[in-house]
Amino acid sequence: MKLVISFNTILSVLLCSVLIVGCKTQETEKNQPNFLFVLVDDQPFDALESSRRYPFLKTPNMQRLEDEGVKFDNFYVTQSICSPSRASFLTGTYPHIHGVNQNNRHVDPDWETYKPYSQILQQAGYETAHIGKIHMAHFEGERHIRPGFDYWYSFVGQGEYFDPMVNDNGKEYQEKGYMTDILTDKAISWLTERRDPNKPFSLNLWHKAVHENHSPAPRHEDIYAKDSLPVPPYNTHLENFKGKPEWQRIKAWDSKWKDYVHTDTLAPKPWPIKGDKFKKLLECLVAVDESLGYVLKTLEDLGELDNTVIIYSSDNGYFMGEHGYWDKRIAYENSMKIPMLMRYPKTIQPGTIIKDIALNIDLAPTILDLAGVDTPSYMQGESMTRLFDNHRNHENWRTSFMFEYYVDDAYPYAGPNMLAIRTKRFKLIDAFLEDDIDELYDLENDPGEMNNLINDPEYQDIEDGLRTELEKLREKYNYNPDRDWWLRTKVSK
User: Fold this and answer.
1) How far is the C-alpha of 12 from the C-alpha of 31, rounded, in Å?
2) What is the pLDDT of residues 192-250, one digit of tens each?
3) Which of 432, 449, 437 is nearest to 319 (CA)?
4) What is the C-alpha to C-alpha distance for residues 390 and 379, in angstroms, rounded to an integer?
5) What angle do CA 70, 76, 79 make, to 5 degrees?
6) How far is it, in rounded angstroms, from Cα 190 to Cα 242?
7) Are the C-beta atoms of 357 and 425 separated by less than 8 Å?
8) What does DSSP assign to residue 112?
9) Which of 1, 358, 370, 412 lies 20 to 30 Å (CA to CA) from residue 438?
10) DSSP string spanning 192-217?
């Protein structure tokens, strides 16, 4: 497929290729690596070429990261919704700790108490930049610039795919073009023209894509129109919700939930669910893969590729018709599991696959560890560097984790408050509802989460053990069930 992107991007890459001596930083070996963190919005964990989930999907640059680096097979968010997850990536803490536990236009994390890793890198001599989506409090002008970044290029809320309003270091104006290409241009421009080449850098390239309403670049419009959307693994599209909580049957009614009448089962929805919606998401992803390729080429021409830790991930998962759903939020694998790819040949062997459970709160400690900077005590994640070597003993690594969700304004479609514990084999979901049932899944025998075992007496001991372990995790991570504790503090000021 021919790659098409803006003239400025191509010119920057070509100039860097021709004037390679001028573009390179010092040839001496650096003690500190650079960091490029590419974050996509709503990319399903299996929307990768290597998964073969969508045979027509080609993501060659993501595949390059897999081939030349590491792929995490079990990487999860601690809450599956945009703002909380992004804040957790930055601070290394759970949403109930940093305060952004919902998408709310009034709240940012408690930056003073829980500094983002970018601010810590700044203090260690890094030059930092954030280019792309932040999706937290809706600030204007210079107030929109978050702490820890020497250069800031972002936008309020979800932003727009075409001709978006942007905030460039506090200056607001309308940019012409397609958002994914615009952000790519800015990233390449910062790498080649704006930054100090004598400092290590940390660059966030956080895309709006592939968030709905899914709007592909014109060059990718309808490229998958003739392709059939395959049914999901484990036939989860045939979900009838027998033996499952009633709130899920209400959720399955989508926008017509007010018309729901009590029933024990629902007929499976016709496939493809939501028509071509999910193919549009995948068409948006093609431009993201192109963007990744252009930025990798720029780093290669700068002589910085192998000295840069490349991180590629998503802020949450996304239902692509599994269980009849779209969106995210709830504690099913398609919602809480995300892609995570990393490349850094000085530490990571090509083609590494990590099966251990890792979380978005682990990324900030990992970045600081690779930079040789102490991790602050408030960060609740763990450095993943010791997982990079599959020959090392991983015995002391986590074997379970806690997932949380706080009901938001999308209820009841989004689901109620919930806590879940996921181990290597089992998952228990507690929705705190007195008039409904919880959920228990044996992921080894039921990876599609179709058979709820919560009322099966043979699994009572398993349930009891999971509840005990969940209580330990609640205590370990200082869980706070009060959704609005931080919101009340901010709104009252």
Assistant:
1) 27
2) 999 999 999 999 999 999 999 999 999 999 999 999 999 999 999 999 999 999 999 99
3) 449
4) 25
5) 150
6) 53
7) no
8) T
9) 358
10) IIIS-TTS-EEEEEE--TTPSS----
